[in-house]
Write a structure and sequence with these properties.
This protein is of the alpha/beta class and about 200 residues long. The chain has one domain: Spore Coat Polysaccharide Biosynthesis Protein SpsA, Chain A (Alpha-Beta Complex). The chain contains seven helices and eleven strands. The chain has a seven-stranded mixed β-sheet, sandwiched between helices. A two-stranded antiparallel sheet has the order 2-3. α3 packs antiparallel against α5.
């Protein structure tokens, strides 16, 4: 089992939130939208700290001052600015000081209490571990080792950016969580209303 004491967290908040936009809100950032009286980034960071993770990185390419209230902000390397969430993962790997990185998207809710421990039990330095529920894989809810940063950079430079394809390259290990309601993504205004 990987050493949880050498684990840091990365919240992916670098997306454009396109599906959340409306005519009334043409430019929006899901991580800063309020839910239950606090911005969504607050809820994710609170969950991570309950899991015992004190060092939290936030991958974001805008609103850095707002996100800095909750963790250390890292932006995508300009070389990988159009590579999607894996660019954020790479930025986290390059900045972290520990050995293991626990990654969560900012728009995911209903986290299992034991998710980190379960992923840590399955991860190896060469094989990331990611969550899977009855609804399917959640490839960006994962733990991976810092040594994968070079391989990830090579993958992105090859013109590929699909997360699940990269996990297959790394022989990533799926860890099952049976609760069908956990790890739901808030992608649309309707999703937000229902939580």
């Amino acid at each position: 089992m990987a050493d949880a004491h050498a684990t840091e967290a990365l919240v992916l908040a670098g997306g454009q939130s396109r599906r959340m936009r409306t005519h009334a809100l043409p430019a929006i950032d899901k991580g800063l939208m309020y839910r239950h009286g606090q911005p969504q980034i607050y809820h994710v960071c609170n969950y991570l700290r309950i899991q015992g993770l004190d060092r939290v990185w936030i991958s974001s390419n805008r609103h850095a001052q707002d996100y800095a209230l909750y963790g250390q902000v890292v932006a995508d390397d300009p070389e990988f600015q159009d590579c999607g969430p894996l660019a954020g993962v790479l930025a986290g790997l390059r900045n972290m000081q520990g050995q293991w990185l626990f990654v969560l998207p900012v728009d995911v809710v209903h986290w299992p209490d034991h998710m980190l421990a379960s992923l840590m039990a399955a991860v190896t330095p060469s094989q990331p571990a990611y969550a899977r529920t009855p609804d399917g894989p959640h490839p960006l809810c994962l733990v991976l080792h810092r040594s994968l940063q070079d391989a990830l950079a090579v993958y992105l430079r090859s013109g590929q950016c699909r997360v699940q394809a990269w996990l297959r390259v790394c022989n990533g290990q799926a860890v099952d969580f049976p609760d069908a309601d956990c790890l739901r993504n808030l992608n649309t205004p309707e999703d937000w209303i229902q939580t």
